[in-house]
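can u pls check wat happens w/ NAI
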Amino acid sequence: MINGTRLTKSAIRWGMVGGGKGSQIGYVHRSAALRDGYFDLKAGAFDLDPDRGRAFGVDLGLDPDRCYPDYGAMFAAESARPDGIRCVTVATPNNTHYPITRAALLAGLHVICEKPLTFTTAEALDLQAIAAERGLVVGVTYGYSGHQMIEEAARLVADGTLGEIRIVNLQFAHGFHSQAVEGDSPATRWRVDPAFAGPSYVLGDLATHPLYIAGVICPDLRIKRLLCSRQSFVASRAPLEDNATVLMEYDTGAVGTCWTSAVNAGAMHSQKVRVVGSKGSIEWWDEHPNQLRLEIQGEPARLLDRGMPYLHPQALADDRIGAGHPEGLFDAWANLHYRFALAIEAHEDRDPSGVAGLRYPGIAAGVEGVRWVEHCVRSADAGGVWVDYA
Ligand code: NAI
């Protein structure tokens, strides 16, 4: 049970790049990192516009001298301070993740970076190598994976309740961009511009979330090959897709599908993960994250609820308030941030084995998301052909 008691020796002095005034995800990062006192916001280069970024940092209560015009200035100045930041969050558009994360690692900082981690697998592997060489943590904010019922789903697969896994059905298909809303929305505009978004829109922006969750639930499945078809229903978004379907074959003989869309008109998130085994199935939906549907063939379907004593202990460990009171995305993000903090402390103590069992989306998850998108794009752009997964 989480009750606000910090499990690390100290709060991590922390900075942010991006996530400034009016940004979509900046507040969620601050809320998650500051919630349980694991991180202490000390510095920031919050905005492309230096004056606006500085004013925002001052509003947040930061020392004006530690509100920097850009990340380069921040890393240089903070490295020179005895009380400089130890970790930085990168909450900027996708095109900047690689250079900013690389510069942060080279400055000796742990990083929490937004997804997709980079544009290319080669870039992601470069970050992985630098982090490994320097003993630094890179956390990637696949935030939904912090929901506790994901842990229950993983236990139900691990203990054989579902039998042999046959089918994985993934979906993240919202309807908010059914029309060309990017005309009025800067945060949508960069998402449909390859210079800022990278080689994909919805595959990287949305589908990597359930992809990561599927990996948590079914860690033994390895993709053998995949086939992707992608469309730009709002034509001005081409070459970036606002809809895509992916077929996957795993090396166990299991198969998977993923439908991702921003033009699923009328739908809210519609992020769902369904895993079908030889004995039964589970289904989790991010709009009802406190429940997990368990269907055993021949028995009535059951709706498992977060916080209930019938869950596996691992699914109860991060409970904050007890069953019946709904927890949400902010709680899930906070769950990931305390794990990031534990991992950072263990790395600083040169004892990463101490957190070997700690589940959090780290650099390997970041690399995998980028690798998957790269394969999907290669398949789709070759006309929707099977490509071997390497
Ligand atoms: P946004 O466009 O709403 O905000 C971006 C912020 O970054 C702005 O404050 C902007 O001024 C600042 N910025 C841009 N370049 C900068 C630079 N070089 N230095 C300092 N600040 C800079 O974008 P949004 O929606 O907040 O997305 C940011 C990132 O978060 C993206 O990579 C996106 O994919 C990811 N994201 C992740 C979510 C999740 O569930 N994990 C949800 C939403 C976004």
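The chain is about 35% helix and 20% strand.
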